[in-house]
UniProtKB/TrEMBL annotation:
Keywords: DNA-binding, Phosphoprotein. GO terms for biological process: phosphorelay signal transduction system; regulation of DNA-templated transcription. Residues 147-212 form the HTH luxR-type domain. The keyword Hydrolase does not apply. Residues 5-121 form the Response regulatory domain. It comes from Frigoriglobus tundricola. This is Two-component transcriptional response regulator, NarL/FixJ family. The keyword Phosphoprotein applies. SUPFAM superfamilies: C-terminal effector domain of the bipartite response regulators (SSF46894), CheY-like (SSF52172). InterPro entries: CheY-like_superfamily, NreC/VraR/RcsB-like_REC, Sig_transdc_resp-reg_C-effctor, Sig_transdc_resp-reg_receiver, Tscrpt_reg_LuxR_C, WalR-like.
Amino acid sequence: MVDLRVFVADDHAVVRRGLKALIDTEPGMTVVGEAADGQEAVTQVRALLPDVVVMDVSMPDLTGSQATEQIRRECPHVKVLALTVHEDKGYIRQLLTAGASGYVLKRGAPEGLIEAIRVVAAGGVYLDPNIAAKVVGGFIQKSPKDVASKNGELSDRETEVARLTAAGHGNKEIATRLDLSVKTVETYRTRSMDKLGLRSRAELVRYAVQKGWLQEG
């Protein structure tokens, strides 16, 4: 079995060394590169194309959110897992909107980080258990009836595109996975968002959490 290739981005050398030591000792994982700032992270990820980037939120040059957005745009198959000390919902929403597939607190257990890497690498979404209740509570401010379709129920294809989008997959990746053109995926995505009355990926993630889509991988 081929090891998961992980990239570590954090502006503290001690943290990077600790993360590298933790990940490299885990069977089936290896750290293939590291960066001390957001711009360096984007440049190296573009060259190395790892499976997962463990991204600190607060970094110089480009913030974690900015670097995440650029990486997801240029390298849609690369998953990003945010790592931070921040527990504010605003940071979480910002990272999810940028395209991160998960959010782990630095104060969490090492086992949680390893689990999170595996989950996002498999196409899922991971929220640190220490903040999951807060995040999901914020996402589910409306009942399912309140988020009902404006123009009718989603078709099976619209549902699949919406679910994969919420799970962090880009349009090109979804197109390949479903054997569709990118333009068709964009059409399905726009149509599903319009039917659900949603305006951003963060709102789509809320809806996906509510519907249980993210637990389906």
